Amino acid sequence: MMTYQSKILDAATRRAGGTFGDLGPGELAVEEWVQAGLDLPEIEKLRRYRLDRLRCQLDRFGYGAALLTDPINVRYATDSTNMTLWTMHNLVRYVFLAVDGPVVLFDFHGSVHLSDHLDLVDEVRRGRSWFYFETGSNTAAAAQAWAAEVADLMTTHARGSRLAVDKLDPPGTMALAAAGVVIGDGQEPCEQARMIKSVDEIAALRCVVHAAEQGIASMHRALRAGISEQELWAHLHTENIRRGGEWIETRLLSSGQRTNPWFQECSSRLIEAGEVVAFDTDLIGPYGYCADISRSWVCDGEPSPRQLRLHDVASEQIAHNTALLRPGLTFSEFTEAAFRLPDPFRESRYSVVLHGVGLCDEYPALLYPEDAHFAYDGTFEESMVVCVESYVGETGGPDGIKLEEQVVITADGAEPMSSYPLGLTLAS
């Protein structure tokens, strides 16, 4: 007999999409989210919103259909997933999406059953491969056969001849052109669609950040002199997978001198007492959504005055830039008013000041003025989710501080999604 608590958990799991045969969140995660008082996403509404929004953007840019090969865009359009990392570099899984017609998913050999639970997918076919690993000297012919099937779908279901394509290799591009298909850049409508999140997407992102924080807490508890960077990093992976998470996009955890310059990935180096440990989660969690937050800690001891000063500057940059965010603010206005790093830290500045986030890092990306050779303008809108970045370290210095906060833009400004402390020590 089910208890009252178990009934609540069962209902929450169903709402969150954990019983439909897809990836779904783990029961551990759902229980934690219920206990934390988080709103859970209604997964069916989330899927419908994304497909409808993508179709609207395709129509806005004058396309009759889209052919999506990037697994992130395939996930956004269909919520179907299969060997995501493998299919990022092997073109065998893709979706044809007509603005006024069907959604036809092409999946890997023997995998057509994986999308049986998805009502928004109208048809599943076996995908045709045309990458050299599988087709060798027959690649051109394989690409022509693939393009002929796409062209037939365009003729049958698309309004007009313009097809939005997100990622494609030379054989595929040439084969579609030879088949008479007019190709346009599908990344623009996809990024524009993904930019504005629904209520359910924001709920999913809050849940994912909460799940990521359990991994961060596990790392924090495990941090001690003598642990390797890789062993510490493994705590984040473990807790992510336990909760139905999927993968981590980078290996950005480093310690001591390896934190300066930034972007050195985690190694077998043993962490020493008094050293800074800095990391960037870049975590793809439950539902395929991203938790992208950074913290920096000092191992086994009190921070030095210099470490505190670097952390104070990074914290000030995060707070200042977060306070600027509001609907209606233009990207250029933000850049003009953004925090100016003190001169000793500018040479080692991070690659962006701010970027969007959803299923992964997304549009927009706002750069420091000296890096903005191809800067574009735009406007922040309500229901955008963005990550505010900071890296502070002197060129040639002994270490550096990396901080990042993920926030949702509301009618009243920016609201942090993470509650994990920014401090350098476990007690702060």
Description of the molecule:
With 428 residues, the chain is an alpha+beta fold. Helix content is 38%, strand content 18%. It has helices spanning 4-15, 27-35, 43-60, 71-78, 84-88, 132-135, 139-157, 170-178, 187-195, 199-222, 229-242, 305-324, 331-337, 343-346, and strands at 65-68, 94-98, 103-107, 123-126, 162-165, 182-185, 247-248, 253-255, 276-280, 283-284, 290-291, 294-298, 354-357, 361-366, 385-392, 401-410, 413-416. The strands form 4 sheets. The chain has a 6-stranded mixed β-sheet with strand order 4-3-2-1-5-6, with helices on both faces.
Layout of secondary structure:
Layout: H1 4-15, H2 27-35, H3 43-60, E1 65-68, H4 71-78, H5 84-88, E2 94-98, E3 103-107, E4 123-126, H6 132-135, H7 139-157, E5 162-165, H8 170-178, E6 182-185, H9 187-195, H10 199-222, H11 229-242, E7 247-248, E8 253-255, E9 276-280, E10 283-284, E11 290-291, E12 294-298, H12 305-324, H13 331-337, H14 343-346, E13 354-357, E14 361-366, E15 385-392, E16 401-410, E17 413-416
Parallel strand pairs: 1-5, 3-4, 5-6
Antiparallel strand pairs: 1-2, 2-3, 7-10, 8-9, 9-12, 10-11, 13-14, 13-15, 15-16, 16-17
Helix pairs in contact: 1-2, 3-9, 7-8, 10-11
Based on secondary structure, the structural category is alpha+beta
Question: Shape, please?
Answer: globular
Spatial gap, N to C terminus:
45 Å
Number of strands: 17
Instruction: Please tell me the overall pLDDT.
Output: 94
Q: Please state roughly what percent of the residues sit in beta strands, choosing from under 5%, 5-15%, 15-25%, 25-35%, 35-45% or over 45%.
A: 15-25%
Order of strands, main sheet, comes to 4-3-2-1-5-6
